[in-house]
Amino acid sequence: MAGMSQANLTHTEAQFRAQALTLSTYYLHLDLSQAADHDQKTYPVTSRIEFTTAEPDLFLDYLGAEVASITVNDSPVEVDFRDGRIYLRNLPTDQPVTVDIASSSNFSRSGQGLHRMLDTADGKTYLYSHLEPSDARRIFPCFEQPDLKARFHVKLSASADWAILSNQPEVSRKTIAAEGGEVATVEFAPSPPLSTYLTSFAAGPYVSTSRMWTAPDQTIGVELRALARASMADYLDDEILEITAQGMDFFHDNFDFPYPWGKYDSIFVPEYNLGAMENPGLVTFTEKYLFRSAPTRAQHAARTNTILHEMSHMWFGDLVTPQWWDDLWLKESFAEYMGADASVHATKYAEAWTNFAGSRKNWAYSQDQLPTTHPIKAEIPDVDAARQNFDGITYAKGAAVLKQLVHYVGREEFYAGARDYFKAHAFAAATFDDLLDALGNHTDRDLDTWSDAWLKTSGPDTLTPKITVHNDTIESLEVIASAEGETRPHRVSISLFDASLTRTTIFDVDIPAGSSTTTISEAHGKPAPSLVLVNDGDHTYAKVRFDDNSLETVRARLSELHGGAEEELSRAVIWTALWNMTRDGQWAANEFIDTVLQHAPHEDNTNLMATNFANARYAVAHFLSDDRREAKRAEVADKFWALLQAAEPGSDAQLTIARSTIAALASTPDASGTSRLNDMLQEGIRGLLLSPDLRWSIIQALAARDALPQEVLEQQREDDNTLTGAAEYLGAKYAYPDPKLKRYLFDEVRIPQAHSNAEVLQLLAAFNAPRAADLTEEFAPEFFEVLESIWSEHPIEIANHIVRGLYPHQEMAVAATNKFLNSNKVPGALHRVLLECQDTVRRNLRVQQAQ
């Protein structure tokens, strides 16, 4: 079938079209009037595209079901639709061209294109779109590349009692009587020039809250709305629009470019593949940001960061768009940076940079040490490669490097350059060189050299202090920089802490590119410190090590390092450094686990607490040898249980500890794991509110321990008759340690289009449930036999989940992966996924052997 092809646009093809085309306007009409009938698998789409071309032969991108007709300048032409493309030939050149297309597109269950779901809570249907990087072609025929911007005139037809939404405000509505109820056709205001992947559509009985935002200088007003499906509307808390308004204030003042998209809707949607998407005027967010369960401050802070991240895209990414996906990092890194910076300066969540340093950067360091690591500015030959680069380097490393750039040139200078960039390239496409040109007007720093060193290389540098002490004073202090290639330039803060762990001295140090040793002459003669902390303040991107004395201080006394926001950020840098050392086999996993259990419970910042609890559990499961793992699991479970008993009732710390306790109890070999989980389920922990999410976690843990009565499971399903609850139910129903269930899951999860993305994730979690590794080992050889079909039969996002979820984390997988890659012609994206899975197994084995 032509419409099922996953045609992969290359950069070469995109450059050809960009040179040939001058794009003007899309006129779209999506007829969703039958969307509530789930027997209807497609919906009609009519498209008109206006452009001029210097080339007579072009192709449109389209992953639809059928193309019924095409006219060019009102004259019918033969339909040539195959392999995900509509071919247009003998077009008039250098004069206006109008192409009209009547087609049918597929409703989606994968989260790509126009996703449709049925809410089990009330039987209502909801639709929303997700199109980045190249899934607008799943909805309408288009020239699907970021630099071909056009104005969009959109009409949507749907049930008249539904919310009907697109990027721009509604300007007209016509309602007609139809079988099954009235149908409204809504016309939206024309958009400013927009890339196809940023178009957005939603329809369904969404419920909304709203408020008006007026700029601080009174120059512009915008309606802000937050929307959710009816069964989740109670969780649309007031803070969502409060943070949205604070962000609008911040970016209006700092970007000096009035918000250009007419309205600002934030829609929270189920079964979403990612956290959020910056569609201008209609931003989509995962429903996980609607808190059905009592949230911690860390969860509020994470949601705030995401709201502000997406809002910054309204300018950086939407107003000015990357020419091609090799600058994907730029818009995402910029937004990642802005999410944190705006949180700190515009909201009460001033700990954003601590959360970034202590949690988000772990993603970057991990990704950057895989064999698939790549420069921040990566070579992106095609759109499938772009899909794979929505990773820790593009987001977290890029943001860390931008943070270093801001520290390198100055914050005010950086914002001044951004303002010039927006004015120069508004509603157009641009490159990183354009941003450097704008920034260069506000600094004397050598930005070209900086750019080459940071953006065109891969892997992290390592910064290690070397201190010599004589008669309780510093004889010398040096920083040793190392890397696989040439080291980068760093501007870092290096702090000394005395015996009371009070910061006594901060050195502002420039470490030149290519330098292996940097001497800090100002340290000579100062009192010998208890702790030397390189990269205090987290201004650069590098793995940090400790001298022996500092490491012992941290191991024994980390929780004594307190005071205020600066000390909290220092602890985040230390925690991340300790985790990197553990992952690299430079510090014993037992030492890390014990340090976490000793000091993380005293963290004021529950993000740091939760991150390090999770890292400790990972270290137990993957970094300890088989003969030591079970005893440590039991010890960790006992300690978490004791921590839970001692936690302040109703506190953020109690909830954070409870979540880790459930995970630890699920894995412990001791029978007490079951009895303690039952105690939690019977609300035996004073002050701990058993929200639906927490209750499901306990139930899934009990199922994994073969200790969950069926009537308890069915009662929970009845009590939480929501779409989220239905997916959680799958995760519990199939988590039992039964060989027949593992066989069922291995087969079931591979059936194309049988499950939504959310259901696939729950089925995979059940397959990999705690204490069932011996039951899944037998599927390892079969995995490599069915691997090719998994990749070819599923959309790339779901295929990615299935491959990673079924990949055998066994020593045999190392050789089996090599054999598969050497014996098959493997798509680049799959090749990357397999190398990453293989490297995880290799690292785990290497760290185990280093203990």
UniProtKB/TrEMBL annotation:
Gene3D superfamilies: Neutral Protease Domain 2 (1.10.390.10), tricorn interacting facor f3 domain (2.60.40.1730). Belongs to the peptidase M1 family. Residues 40-198 form the Aminopeptidase N-like N-terminal domain. The lineage of its organism: Bacteria, Bacillati, Actinomycetota, Actinomycetes, Mycobacteriales. Residues 531-843 form the ERAP1-like C-terminal domain. GO terms for molecular function: alanyl aminopeptidase activity. It catalyses: Release of an N-terminal amino acid, Xaa-|-Yaa- from a peptide, amide or arylamide. Xaa is preferably Ala, but may be most amino acids including Pro (slow action). When a terminal hydrophobic residue is followed by a prolyl residue, the two may be released as an intact Xaa-Pro dipeptide. This is Aminopeptidase N. It comes from Corynebacterium ammoniagenes DSM 20306. SUPFAM superfamilies: Leukotriene A4 hydrolase N-terminal domain, Metalloproteases ('zincins'), catalytic domain. It holds the Pfam family Peptidase_M1. Its EC number is 3.4.11.2. Keywords: Aminopeptidase, Hydrolase, Metal-binding, Metalloprotease, Protease, Zinc.
